[in-house]
TrEMBL record:
This is chitinase. InterPro entries: Cts1-like (IPR045321), GH (IPR017853), Glyco_hydro18_cat (IPR001223), Glyco_hydro_18_chit_AS (IPR001579), Glycosyl_Hydrlase18_Chitinase (IPR050542). It catalyses: Random endo-hydrolysis of N-acetyl-beta-D-glucosaminide (1->4)-beta-linkages in chitin and chitodextrins. The keyword Secreted applies. Coiled coil: none annotated. The keyword Lipid metabolism does not apply. One of its GO terms (biological process) is chitin catabolic process. Gene3D superfamilies: Glycosidases. Keywords: Carbohydrate metabolism, Chitin degradation, Disulfide bond, Glycosidase, Hydrolase, Polysaccharide degradation, Secreted, Signal. One of its GO terms (molecular function) is endochitinase activity.
Amino acid sequence: MATNLLLPLLLLALVAGSHAGSIAVYWGQNGNEGTLADTCASGLYSYVNLAFLTTFGNGQTPVLNLAGHCDPSAGTCTSLTSDIQSCQSQGVKVFLSLGGASGSYSLSSTDDAQNVAQYLWDNFLGGSSSSRPLGAAVLDGIDFDIEATNGDFFDTLAQALSQFSSQGNKVYLTAAPQCPYPDAHLNTALQTGLFDYVWIQFYNNAQCQYSSGSIDNLTSAWNTWISSVTATSFFLGLPASPDAAPSGGYIPPDVLISQVLPAIQGPKYGGIMIWSRYYDVLNNYSATVKNSV
Ligand SMILES: *[C@@H]1O[C@H](CO)[C@@H](O)[C@H](O)[C@H]1NC(C)=O
Ligand SMILES: *[C@@H]1O[C@H](CO)[C@@H](O)[C@H](O)[C@H]1NC(C)=O
């Protein structure tokens, strides 16, 4: 065979074998999950969501909660600056995740949403503030893991954040809705069409998660999502172990690889999202499935 044909064939084989999907992970809610730097150095992930900014909006002073990793009120989370920069130097994008399953957050008006956007820009993104909780590191974007509130004014927040993109580097917007469509908290925000990546939580939601050997409810919900929301790409959000999702949705690696991924790996597929780094370390889930993602 002529050598000038060999290279294109090799590249084709690589592309066909890799599926070109990525893994996103949540880090921050368990002090025993290892450092952020080690998480990125594992080479498993393309996106890390720092979880969570648990208090914001409605005039409240925002509060970052990174469990046992550091204490924002004592200023010790600024030590994460070098970890964040080390992640970014390896091509891993780092986002701040807003919300979570428990927290004190809501937006009370358009002004409130715009104030929160300005706060996020000044304290975590490309702006400046004397009290940046994570220090000088500039995060790549904001993740909306909104599981409380009625969702009012989160569309305004998305619009206000996206406007900072035009001032320089892109501010990525990502979201983690629950799999029943439409999401109870994020629908108006998602309908802006401004989100880059949408990692849908296919767990703790009986009507759309994998269960009892059936992928039908999952694939049906997946198809509804990708045809109803405009975003760059969609990720299958999964628990890294059965313990990570008390109300179900865990997919054993062999089932994910042989049944679920082949059913969803179409043009809008971006990869998988894993809750969380802590359970991923314990169960070695991402490492086991990575070559098929
Ligand atoms: C699929 O969802 C329906 C409710 O929408 C539920 O009745 C059914 O049990 C689910 N299937 C599985 C296999 O869990
Ligand atoms: C995790 O899975 C990878 C890929 O299968 C394997 O190479 C590695 O040894 C596993 N690690 C542990 C701790 O089991």
